[in-house]
Amino acid sequence: MIPTLNWTPEGVRFLDQTKLPLEETYVLAKTYEDVAEIIVTMVVRGAPAIGVSAAYGVALGALETKAGTTRDFAPEFEKICAHLAGTRPTAVNLFWAIDRMKRVFAALLAAGASIGEVKDKLLAEAHAMYEEDIAACKAMGAFGGALLPAEGGVLTHCNAGALATCGYGTALGVIRSAVEQGKKIHVYADETRPFLQGARLTAWELMADHIPTTVICDNMAASIMAKGKIQAVVVGADRIAANGDVANKIGTYNVAILAKEHGIPFYVAAPWSTIDLKTPDGSAIPIEERSAREVTHHAGTQLTPHGVGICNPAFDVTPNKYVTAIFTERGVLRAPYGESLKKMA
Ligand code: MRU
Asked: How far is the C-alpha of 249 from the C-alpha of 161, rounded, in Å?
């Protein structure tokens, strides 16, 4: 199994995704500030992995405290949660995980629990989220894998794999499950400019699993579809609004439009922790704007003229009308998503 993140007696160990595929190195987070930095710098990335990392960050913060009582720890707990919540704005899993840790803490505070108990219970909750994430990936993988064709090309964008979760993956979990069901799938991985999650990470983890994979530049998708090489598109999500609009890696929206034009099903795989019923539609989803340097430079080499205008939104929103189905651990959702999401909640 790909060791995206795991708990050790010294802290949380992260596979450094900024160094893949050329180097397999690890970074140890000993404090909650370390975890926050690791999320901001994208050593760990992908909505479900960010959520569980933040939960471990909260647990580390509790383990580090010098407070002698739960009541004394309460203001520090709030500070830890706020610090972790300030790391990345789009993936709702981050806020979902922190809210879940807050609920555990509030119940312990109300029950008069000791600080020792608080430390144990917060760590146990983070462990539970880790395990649940893998189970959710496997469940949605089975639902989605059953809908992929017995043979054919599947296009994916960004990395929604084991590296973006605690293991198995969402979109790549669907592909893994289809392959385990005996289907002959060839994956086309969009390179995913500017951070190259597809070229670096999706290709790396699918090769490790011996799943046939071809990396294409983002601007090749239409032409490959027109040649009849793609039978389905499967992507992950960072946040799904109450009406089924899907925020995912920048460029996902382009792929969805292309899929519709070519009559190819466009599937989204995401755990329930990615669904944000409090956000009515995609226009209300905050989109992270990242550093211009990710666009102007590659591996330290400048690509663009000095001073040219740059924009770098990390995510876009695919309107629900392009989404053929959403796979979650609870089952398969179909349009109208406003109704199907409410029913499954
Ligand atoms: O900026 P990133 O690499 O964190 O973006 C990741 C994505 O957009 C993924 O597709 C999404 O988080 C789903 S991961 C299972």
From this structure: 13
Give the pLDDT band of residue 230 (cuts 50, 70, 90).
very high
pTM comes to: 0.98
Which residue, of 103, 138, 173, is where some domain finishes?
Answer: 138
Query: How many folded domains does the chain comprise?
Result: 2
- Return d(Cα 80, Cα 158) in angstroms, integer: 30
Going by their DSSP bridges, the two strands 266-269 and 232-235 should be labelled as parallel
Q: Are residues 173 and 319 in the same domain?
A: yes
From 166, 193, 238, 312, mutation site for ligand 1 pocket: most ligand atoms within 8 A of C-beta: 238
SS3 of 133, please? helix
pLDDT beyond 90 at 240: yes
Q: Is the domain of 107 the same as that of 181?
A: no
Q: What tens digit of pLDDT does each residue of 143-173 get?
A: 999 999 999 999 999 999 999 999 999 999 9
Q: Among 40, 45, 285, which is best to mutate for testing ligand 1, by the most ligand atoms less than 8 A from CB?
A: 45
Q: Which domain holds residue 145?
A: 141-344
- Residue 207, domain CATH: 3.40.50.10470
Contact 15, 166 (CB under 8 A): no
Residues carrying an active site annotation = 238
Residues 214 and 338 in one domain: yes
Amino acid identity of residue 288, one-letter, is E
- For residue 269, give the ligand 1 atom closest to its CA: 15
Last residue of a domain, one of 119, 138, 157: 138
Tell me the per-residue pLDDT of 75-107, one tens digit each, with 9 for 90 and over.
Answer: 999 999 999 999 999 999 999 999 999 999 999
CA of 126 to the centre of ligand 1 (A): 20
The total number of residues written for the chain in this structure: 345
Mean pLDDT (whole number) for 222-227: 98
- Ligand 1 site residues (CB inside 6 A) read 45-48, 91, 158, 160, 164-165, 170, 197, 236-238, 248-249, 314
